[in-house]
Fold each of these.
Amino acid sequence: MIENEAKGVLLVLSGPSGVGKGTVCKALLARNPEVKLSVSATTRAPRPGEVEGVSYFFKTREEFERMIAAGEFLEYMDVFGTNYYGTPRAYVEQQLFAGDDVLLEIDVKGAMNVKRIFPEAVLVFIAPPSMETLKKRLVGRGTETEEAVKRRTQEAFAEMKLMPKYDYVVVNDVLEEAVRSVETILEAERLRAWRRTDLTNLCKEAGTDL
Ligand code: 5GP
């Protein structure tokens, strides 16, 4: 069971479409090279500029369903009813066992599933400064059809409703401040007593266990 053995922090970042969670993740990873990004698998087509194995592992439905059957996902979702998205289990477990922190950028339902399977996961909700800003960001993205924007807006409003279920909420207004907040969360989580296996000897000397 990964619950008892994993030492790294499993940091799950999610939030509605258009909130800029991808930008927050990128900046976090650039400043904290010790944090490992879990690359998800998806059946959706690559967008311009997306790279296989970096943005996603792009799969056919058949390949994805074979991976589901083989139990290769920590969690997976039919996110918009058209495409599968999933977190490959092996990479996450390996990094956590090795004591490295792992970042998942997944949708809100996926985040809830991860928390059920792995209660020590730290769930961070990236929120917009206002619903108005969120709507503007969804329209301004410019990579999708009007219908797709409308669907994403409806999804985004539904996703906002799960905010109270998260461990932390970070508002993405000024990027630098949002990233700093996520770093603060990570620093605090790393200091949790049960994770301080580096202090086993100190505890022994004091006549206790962690
Ligand atoms: P996009 O198609 O814009 O890259 O992503 C659509 C949604 O799928 C986003 O909310 C993204 O966070 C989510 N997503 C990406 N990877 C995963 C995953 O592995 N699992 C789940 N549950 N959602 C994911």
Amino acid sequence: MCHLKKMEKNFYVTTPIYYVNGAPHVGSAYTTIAADVIARYKKTQGYNVYSLTGTDEHGQKVEETALLKGLTPQAWTDLMAPKFQEMWKLLNIENDDFIRTTEPRHKSAVVKILSTVYEKGDIYCGEYEGKYCVSCENFVPENQIVENKFCPDCGKELRVVKEESYFFKMSKYQDELLKHIDENPNFILPQSRRNEVINFIKQGLQDLSISRNTFTWGIPIEFAPGHITYVWFDALTNYLTAVGYENNLEKFDEFWNNSEVVHLLGKDIVRFHAIIWPCMLLSAGIKLPDKIVAHGWWTSEGEKMSKSKNNVVDPIEEVKKYGVDAFRFCLMREVNFGNDGDYSTKNIISRINNDLANDLGNLLNRTLGMYSKYFDGVIVEGKNEDEFTKNLYILFEETLIVVERSMEKLEFSKSMEAIWKFISRMNKYIDETMPWLLAKEESEKVKLGGVMNTLVEGLYKVAVLIYPYMPVKSQNIWDQLGVEKSIKNSLIEDIKEWNHFKKGDKLGVATVLFPRLEVLVEEAKNELEINENLKIENPTTIEKFGETKIEVVEIISVEKVEGADRLLKFKVKTGKEIRQIVSGIAKNYPEFKLLEGKKVLAVLNLPPVTLLGILSQGMILSTEDKKNGIKLVEISQEIKVGAKLK
Ligand code: ME8
């Protein structure tokens, strides 16, 4: 058994571990979805896969955010980490592990790698004097500082730091790293990033400050009392922790030493991953990862996403609008993995309507409709060896080659382009073979059966190919085709032949796979006119309205009330204090934990009441309509807690 295990092909994929200073958004969702897609794809290739994501919880940035929120860093990270876990659940991410850097297993791993590097003689004590970017958690060399005080990466103002610090002899590994990059052309992808890293290293690597001693939120360093580990040294080690570096050498052998190791990340953190990380591993005597793949940056409707512009794309909203599979598909299809991309409603709607509703959805619908009409939805024996069919078979073989080649380089959109070429070809195949004409001639029944079988076989294959991107809809295609298996366990190897369906198999019930989305017509807005003679019902006065004290509050925590299905218990921060409010909206918020951190409106001058024995000190405002049910009135994050509704 043990012997067999060694023969397996192992694959280990990671995302960056995200800072918990803010909630997850479309950027973090993008990397995490990409990791999920490649993990699922590798499983269809027969790999034994381990996929990891998590949260980066130490460091000055997180400590300062927690302080601003009036919480200890630990309380703050405990509040934020579940937001990421819940988001990944919502996005159907099948990660094998979720690591938090505050976990004991990780702390032990950091202690282990630090002592290994120290014993190697690669750490020495010195003094760091220079500028530091808290937002990037980066020591910025003098020659890169913009206008003498700004960070070259995020543009924020740098802090002057002068403190005793321990340094890692990164410069020692410069030549070895350059040699490794040179000998392994796919070590850093895409090429543009690889060149950037090579140029950077060639300018000369400086030793890296890896300890801080002017704040305390970090992992203490055993050989350096009073110092905590620099957050990037701490964070990068997570990739080892999760596969058992510190306590499970069998797992470490399986998923690090004998595995293909792939790190996915955004272009903002390439240098940390492609320079600092390999140097740490070289010093500790650990094998380097196989691929470090950087993707581009998302903007929103053409602009940089930022809280102050209120244009940060919230995946929860997008999933509500389009469904989780369509959202996953659009992100991965819209831009090539290494390039920057713009998230625009117009593009998303057009992708969904064209690629999903028209090309794929219609193909499935037409096929099932015709099979039902001509053969009552029961598979018949058929034969068709015309040129159209042969060409389709050839195209499928080519599709598999392109998919495999592009996925090796994590070129998701290229891979999907090939899959959609095949889908379009199948649509064209219907027009070429004209089943409706064949159906008119009794003598063409066998040929008609052949054409229809080619179509259902093709759709069966398409479902497997799109499964990594759309795990729910691909299963739905199989269900509609009457396939009684879970697509989750499917293998590409098993779809190479065109022989899945057997005579007598029953196809399933046809439903709409992706409904078409209506595009809001801009002109319609201009036709709206005001009614100057409007009658106001139940008029009130400004004075009367002013008696109600309504303010912006922040939801700190939400819990279910034991024994009361309808009730949720909120802890909220008002401008002055922390209050408890009970609200009967549990049914409308099955994912109620996602409300934590949101700002909402609450009436604060109602007398306290007790609901089922629980004290409620106010009322959170909500809206109600037929389509959405009850929804809390959410307020933009840039509005301060305590702001009054006037
Ligand atoms: O850097 N477009 O965490 P982080 C695309 N904790 N991707 C984006 C994005 C955008 N607009 N915004 C964020 C950290 N990302 C460290 C990592 S790893 C050992 C430590 C994604 O929360 C992208 O993957 O700032 C980027 O690299 C990552 O979020 C940064 O996440």
